[in-house]
């Protein structure tokens, strides 16, 4: 075996580099093909010989990157405004191939600015082997060809910045594609120089179940089993290896140097696995993410947010990511909108005890986080508007899932995550999205809930979202103030946001009947004026109480004079 490989390498290295690459990729691809066709595998003790290609494949996204220009054109704390989560493939097609792209997104920046968003979170835009959601990254430094070029990406950044909008990209830090050259090299042989970038065991560990599946997978051409917590096509990096940390930090600097304003980090609860019973939110994960945070902090005005559904609060701390999605709040927002008394209480209490670095949202691209809000509320527009008013005025960074602002529904012809990732409903048919044939079927309610129909309708969801974002953007207390004096009484609740002398009060009535509300513990004689909603404001009485009457399913925003 060794003699053969040496001879093979000797001959191969005398060929031109492109020819070498072709032969090497064929040698690597052959066992994959055999495995996929049900051929013999290592699991069955088959006779397939490991092919030692060494570190044969070039790794285009490796190599040192040092800190470049650190400045930012965005104002301090820009990330306290609301974000739009954008799935580029589904947002706007610019060239008629039926797939959204970066140039298309640039065309829609005016729309996003007009709506009032201050940041974009883009699902992965790097080259992937899934050719869809982008989480199977093949090259951390290349833009997905369906989406455009590096120049298109740089145009997006500069055009977004001109509109006061920051751009945050999804960074897949836990795993790569099984087609990433690092994994192909790592799996080529137990002796490969890049073996340690991924997690290998031999024999196969027993007793593991992650999200209902065995995470250890046979590699058909190398001795050993690799760990992949999400899918056998997405092997986990070995975060105990210093070279993995170096690899990712170089790639983070690569994008920071291009002017990106930060990152959304995928699956940070899954970075390090210690045993079959200790594979989620391990202490090492916080240390890893805090080092990442230190790298971001070498630049000005950069922001990061982490996905960690199993323990959002711990990852939001400054000793970890410094910000994380409030997965444990979404259900309370939706429940409150439906008038559930215990959900209303949980919503009112949430930020009393939690860091304001938690980012509220009601749905995203993943089914486990909830259906499209329209589907969760079965198209009840009054409840929908209350859900929006509840979370867009909270502390942290609120995230709107694209199309949520117009009440986009899931597809009724697709299942799972795909139903949540349909082309944006710009017009009543597919033509607003693409002049070609869309890559995926449309939202079920595109005929009645679309941007064209809502832009000039004062009562529309779009106008409701726009007013709420204008409020958040115009009041420092609402964007970055503290969370004070929260209360709930049956189907009503309220809270204050306070920044210095600026005090703004939000009161919500989730009931389908009129409510008389008394807010106590206020300063006698204070006058509160209406900023928005269905109250004219009031004066605090000598007992420190202010009384309101709020119509059914309405809210009011008041400011202390
Ligand atoms: Ca396109
Ligand atoms: Ca992992």
Q: Could you walk me through the main structural features you see in this protein, from its secondary elements to its overall organization?
A:
- It is a single chain.
- The chain is an alpha/beta fold and 561 residues long.
- It folds into three domains: 2-55 and 177-227, Oligo-1,6-glucosidase, domain 2; 81-173 and 242-326 and 397-474, Alpha-Beta Barrel (TIM Barrel), CATH 3.20.20.80; 482-560, Immunoglobulin-like, CATH 2.60.40.
- It has 17 helices and 21 strands.
- Strands 10-9-5-2-1-13 form a six-stranded parallel sheet.
- Helix 14 (381-391) packs parallel to helix 16.
- The radius of gyration is 26 Å and the shape is globular.
- One calcium ion (CA) is lined by residues 174, 229, 236, 270-271, 273.
Descriptors for this entry?
about 550 residues, alpha/beta, Oligo-1,6-glucosidase, domain 2, TIM Barrel, disordered N terminus, binds calcium ion
């Amino acid at each position: 075996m060794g003699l053969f490989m040496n001879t093979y390498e000797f001959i191969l290295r005398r060929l031109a580099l492109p020819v070498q690459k072709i032969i090497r990729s064929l040698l690597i691809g052959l066992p994959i093909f055999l495995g996929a066709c049900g051929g013999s595998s290592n699991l069955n003790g088959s006779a397939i010989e490991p092919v030692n290609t060494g570190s044969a494949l070039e790794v285009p996204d490796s190599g040192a990157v040092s800190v470049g220009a650190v400045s930012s054109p965005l104002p301090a704390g820009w990330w306290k405004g609301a974000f739009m989560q954008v799935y580029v493939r589904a947002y706007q097609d610019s060239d008629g191939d039926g797939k959204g792209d970066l140039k298309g997104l640039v065309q829609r920046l005016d729309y996003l600015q007009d709506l009032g968003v201050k940041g974009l979170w883009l699902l992965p835009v790097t080259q992937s082997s899934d050719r869809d959601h982008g989480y199977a990254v093949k090259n951390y430094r290349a833009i997905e060809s369906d989406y455009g070029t590096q120049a298109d990406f740089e145009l997006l950044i500069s055009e977004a910045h001109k509109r006061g909008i920051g751009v945050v990209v999804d960074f897949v830090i836990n795993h790569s594609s099984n087609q990433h050259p690092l994994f192909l090299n790592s799996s080529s042989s137990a002796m490969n120089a890049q073996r340690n970038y991924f997690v290998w065991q031999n024999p196969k560990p027993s007793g593991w179940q992650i999200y209902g599946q065995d995470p250890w997978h046979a590699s058909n051409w190398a001795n050993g089993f690799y760990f992949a917590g999400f899918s056998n096509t997405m092997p986990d990096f070995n975060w105990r290896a210093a070279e993995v940390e170096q690899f990712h930090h170089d790639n983070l600097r690569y994008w920071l140097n291009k002017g990106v304003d930060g990152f959304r980090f995928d699956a940070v609860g899954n970075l390090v696995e210690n045993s079959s019973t200790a594979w989620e939110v391990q202490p090492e994960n916080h240390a890893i993410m805090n080092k990442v945070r230190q790298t971001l902090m070498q630049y000005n005005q950069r922001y990061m947010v982490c996905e960690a559904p199993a323990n959002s609060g711990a990852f939001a701390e400054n000793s970890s990511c410094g910000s994380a999605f409030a997965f444990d709040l979404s259900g309370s927002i939706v429940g409150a909108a439906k008038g559930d008394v215990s959900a209303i209480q949980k919503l009112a209490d949430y930020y009393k005890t939690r860091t304001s670095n938690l980012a509220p949202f009601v749905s995203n691209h993943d089914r486990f986080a909830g259906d499209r809000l329209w589907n969760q509320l079965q198209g009840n527009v009054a409840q929908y508007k209350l859900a929006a008013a509840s979370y867009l005025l909270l502390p942290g960074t609120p995230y709107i899932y694209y199309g949520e602002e117009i009440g986009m529904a899931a597809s009724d012809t697709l299942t799972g995550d795909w139903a949540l990732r349909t082309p944006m409903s710009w017009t009543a048919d597919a033509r607003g999205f693409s002049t070609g044939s869309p890559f995926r079927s449309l939202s079920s309610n595109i005929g009645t809930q679309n941007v064209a129909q809502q832009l000039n309708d004062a009562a529309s969801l779009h106008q409701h979202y726009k007013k709420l974002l204008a409020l958040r953007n115009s009041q420092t207390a609402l964007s970055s103030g503290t969370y004070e004096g929260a209360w709930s009484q049956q189907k009503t609740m309220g809270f204050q946001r306070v920044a210095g002398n600026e005090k703004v009060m939000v009161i919500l009535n989730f009931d389908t009947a009129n409510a008389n509300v008394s807010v106590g513990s206020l300063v006698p004689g204070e006058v509160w004026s209406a900023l928005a909603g269905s109250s004219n404001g009031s004066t605090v009485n000598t007992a420190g109480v202010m009384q309101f009457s709020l119509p059914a399913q309405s809210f009011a925003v008041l400011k202390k004079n």
